[in-house]
Amino acid sequence: MRVLTWNVQWKLPTSSAGQELLKRIKAEQPQVLCLTETYDDFLPAGHQIDSQADYGYPLTPGKRKVILWSRNPWELVDQIGSEQLPPGRFVSGTTETPIGSVRFIGVCIPWRAAHVSNGRRDKQPWEDHLAYLSGLADILARIDDDVPTVVLGDFNQRIPRRWSPPEVYEKLINAFGGRFHFASQGLKFGSHSAIEHIAFTEDLQASDVRPLSNITDDGSELSDHFGVVATVSKASGR
To answer: Are 109 and 154 in contact (CB under 8 A)?
Structure first.
């Protein structure tokens, strides 16, 4: 199955940048995709689940930090995950795919300055990020092995580590408990390393992992993030 994730930086679906992003997304023909920092009407018809609207900043109609889209209906939908998570940045569900039923967890982990110099201005650098990782660790420790799982979205860290403090990176890796592989590990577009990631449990494998360009023909940016797409299949012998 083709799986895609992209932070589209709040581009409206009616804008020229939004239309070009949609064109590039559709060209990949994903079975399942995760968009972060988007609008609830950005994607065409399909089956969509969204994070909660309130993510701690002033509310704007339609804005969602995370959406998951599938060609097939969703079951076991969860917008909370853990009470430890900062709100509005999580959604999960199970959907049928070409390789069977798969659990998807869509995330938008806060960047290092969330609510530091904007928003509520009541946090220290990395505080919200670390709180999210504590919640994510709790969620991933509780998931059953009966259904393959993919975690995808905006991790706001590079894998392997580049700029984040060692203890922050260690907490990210430890949140996955050694049960996940990172398809996007080391992925680059130009000189930029991925902070959008696709991670999966050991009963899955990934191939054809590629960056999706965020640059137009005239050199302007469609988003400040490039996208990531991968083919995910059952691991050999599973």
So the answer is: yes
**Model pTM score:** 0.97
Rounded Cα–Cα distance for residues 10 and 74 (Å): 24
The single-letter DSSP state of residue 122 is -
- Listed in order, strand segments (DSSP E) in the chain are 2-7, 32-39, 47-50, 63-70, 74-78, 90-97, 100-108, 149-154, 180-182, 188-189, 192-193, 196-201, 204-212, 227-234
What is the C-alpha separation between 55 and 175, in angstroms, rounded? 21
List the domains of the chain with CATH numbers: 2-234 (3.60.10.10)
Per-residue confidence in pLDDT tens, the chain, 238 aa: 999 999 999 999 999 999 999 999 999 999 999 999 999 999 988 999 999 999 988 899 999 999 999 999 999 999 999 999 999 999 999 999 999 999 999 999 999 999 898 888 888 999 999 999 999 999 999 999 899 999 999 999 999 999 999 999 999 999 999 999 999 999 999 999 999 999 999 999 999 999 999 999 999 999 999 999 999 999 987 6
Q: For 117-124, which contacts have Cβ atoms below 8 Å and span 24 or more sequence positions?
A: 119/56, 119/57, 120/56
Pairing of strands 100-108, 90-97: antiparallel
Burial class (CB in 10 A: 0-12, 13-18, 19+), 228: buried
Query: How far, in Å, CA of 110 to CA of 194, rounded?
Result: 15
Measured between alpha carbons, how far is 22 from 178 in angstroms, rounded to an integer?
34
